[in-house]
Design goal:
Elements (H helix, E strand, L loop, with lengths): L1 E2 L15 H4 L3 E2 L2 H16 L2 H8 L4 H21 L4 H27 L1
Antiparallel strand pairs: 1-2
């Protein structure tokens, strides 16, 4: 993997190990790329404004899934007399997973 400053290298390849570095391309092996990706995701997850912005990027599928989990939790409240902790955990886990997916997509774009 690499991060080109602009466009492909002179040979036309987008990941050329020989002429890429000569043009100031930073070639990254997959492990280094994954480490940088994880670091960016961690950085974003510690920023409240980034978390709020990520929620604005939820897909319709995300909202439908969250709604279904919420309605399921409320149904269980009427039946059992309280929202089960597992239902609350499922809602929180899905939201966290969706935000992490969005942060990962953003970080991949930033690194490529």
């Amino acid at each position: 993997m690499y991060r080109p400053p602009s466009g492909p290298c002179l040979c036309g390849c987008t990941d050329c190990p020989s002429c890429g570095p000569a043009q100031d391309y930073t070639l990254l092996d997959e492990e280094t790329f994954d480490e940088e990706l994880a670091a960016l995701v961690r950085q974003k997850s510690q920023n409240l404004a980034a978390i709020t912005a990520a929620q604005g990027e939820f897909t319709n599928e995300d909202f439908a899934h969250i709604d279904a989990l919420i309605f399921q939790a409320f149904d269980s409240e009427r039946v059992v007399g309280g929202i089960p902790p597992e239902a609350m955990q499922a809602i929180g886990q899905y939201i966290l997973t969706a935000i992490t997916r969005i942060f990962t997509e953003q970080a991949q774009k930033e690194l490529s």
